[in-house]
TrEMBL record:
This is Putative glycosidase C21B10.07. It comes from Grifola frondosa. One of its GO terms (biological process) is glucan catabolic process. Pfam families: GH16_XgeA. One of its GO terms (molecular function) is hydrolase activity, hydrolyzing O-glycosyl compounds.
Length: 315
């Protein structure tokens, strides 16, 4: 008698698979649809990059934002020689109009910006940074490692040193204050997850799952036969329990998610030089001064573009 209620709860869980890791698609972004679901942000680059983020009308007029069928392309200008005393190279920063807490996002990306000085990112962030947290899904600079996924938070959020993931942790303290803004990153294990090797493989799929108790990130290259079919097809329902070990796993055991992660917007940005890419420009094998390189070499940015097939959100 004493155990009856527990048995009843256990049975009701078995009977309700929706409580497991099954999700239903809430948003599907593709081609022209990105123009309505995302805003072009003509703002100053907070990371001091040599870019000039333009509004949607300018981006469309200059073909920095382009769509056709299931291609959505955003790029940096690759035709203009810049004046050293003028603004930076025109580029695009997009922010989702919707905000998300717990959800899954799945990206099918064919191409990401490549070349010296490029610092592309696909990420999610709250309005009150760092108090509402930041989740970087894909980020890197100058075509180099690290190709990493990172959390940035306020103080009091750390990750266990040992955890179930295929990637390699960098720092385990996610606090921006403690780590000089580095946060807690995990390097993807596969060389084709970023930059030129990603592009020459035809890109691939990135997926991020945020629950109240963990954040996971997966990557599959375009030709990877192990990609789950619900991921590859952008299915209307998905089951993340079938996706295998993520490359990055951030559990909440020593990080209270409810006080470190708020409502997030999704952001896609491409900056040039700036606090990270500029600082390691020569160390990454790029020539001379980063800002001078950006000013004088427009044709170096011909491949500095994202080509996104779709973004699906599940809740
Ligand atoms: C671009 O994205 C990265 C994501 O990690 C962020 O640190 C940086 O501030 C962003 N820059 C701009 C200008 O949005
Ligand atoms: C605009 O960019 C797209 C994608 O890169 C390209 O296919 C197209 O030819 C460009 N259009 C013009 C008018 O340059
Ligand atoms: C393209 C690239 O730089 N890939 C690297 C991603 O990170 C792993 C782990 O550090 C490297 O082995 C890859 O070469």
């Amino acid at each position: 008698m004493k155990y009856t209620p527990r048995i009843a709860i256990w049975l009701s869980c078995l009977a309700a698979p929706g409580l497991a890791a099954t999700y239903t698609q809430t948003d599907s972004h593709q081609g022209e649809g990105f123009l309505e679901s995302f805003t072009h942000q003509a703002i100053a680059d907070p990371t001091n990059g040599r870019v000039n983020y333009v509004d949607q009308a300018t981006a469309l007029a200059q073909n920095l934002t382009y769509y056709s069928g299931d291609h959505f392309v955003i790029r940096a200008d690759d035709t203009t020689v810049l004046s050293a005393s003028g603004p930076g190279r025109n580029s695009v920063r997009l922010q989702s109009n919707k905000q998300y807490t717990t959800h899954v996002s799945v990206w099918s990306i064919r191409h990401m910006p490549q070349g010296c000085a490029t610092w592309p990112a696909v990420w999610e962030v709250g309005a009150d940074w760092p108090n509402e947290g930041e989740i970087d899904v894909v980020e890197g600079v100058n075509d180099q490692t690290p190709n990493q996924s990172t959390l940035h938070t306020s103080d009091g959020c750390t990750m266990p040193a040992s955890r179930t993931q295929t990637g390699t942790s960098t720092l385990n303290d996610c606090s921006t204050a403690d780590t000089n803004n580095a946060g807690c990153g995990v390097l993807a294990p596969s060389a084709n997850s970023y930059g030129p090797p990603f592009n020459s493989a035809g890109g691939g799929w990135y997926a991020m799952e945020r629950t109240t108790s963990f954040i996971k990130v997966w990557f599959w290259s375009r030709g990877d036969g192990s990609v789950p079919s619900d991921v590859a097809n952008g299915a209307t329902t998905i089951d993340t329990d079938n996706w295998g070990t993520p490359y990055a796993y951030f559990p909440s055991q020593s990080c209270d998610f409810s006080s470190h992660f708020g409502e997030h917007n999704i952001i896609i940005n491409l900056t040039l030089c700036g606090d990270w890419a500029g600082a390691v420009f020569n160390a990454d094998g790029c020539p001379g001064d980063c800002v001078t390189y950006v000013n004088n070499n427009p044709s170096s940015f011909t491949n500095a573009y994202f080509d996104i097939q779709w973004l699906k959100i599940y809740g």
